[in-house]
Amino acid sequence: MNLDDVPAGARILIDANILIYARRGMSAQCCRLLARCAEGEVIGVLTTIALAEFCHRRMMQEAQSRGWSASNPAKALAQNPPIVRQLTAYKLEMEDLLAGDMAVEICDGNDFLTALGLQQTHGLLTNDSLQLAIGIRQDIKLLATADPQFADIPGFTLFRPDDVR
Known about the structure:
Layout: E1 11-14, H1 16-23, H2 28-39, E2 43-47, H3 48-65, H4 73-78, H5 81-86, H6 89-98, E3 103-105, H7 109-122, H8 126-137, E4 142-144, E5 157-159
Parallel strand pairs: 1-2, 1-4, 2-3, 4-5
């Protein structure tokens, strides 16, 4: 199912890539889903994992848009704090996102234990398994993501954009 199929009134985990595609104008479906969340038609839930990933990726993208490029941009930026201090667009985007209407769910120690099981059972990486672990704890069964690795996880219904450009 695509993002337009998310039912009204549903609680849904929003993955970082949905936020990225919406912010970069790469998917009208992602933009519409976030608008539905802002209007209260859909209850969007962000995890601290998704927020951290969004923040990191937008910081890297902003640095690249300003001409800062390196084979390992995160390492290069970590070694150049003055450049990081000059980056402001990602910070404004984070503040805007946090001021919005989406709930933010934190990751706790028990989520790591659940995530370890998901990693072993489904071969998921750490952040992906933590995202699902928080969903399990919060009894959120819907996930909006562009990542295909979630397709065969029992107990979750996946909604993916099919218009990413």
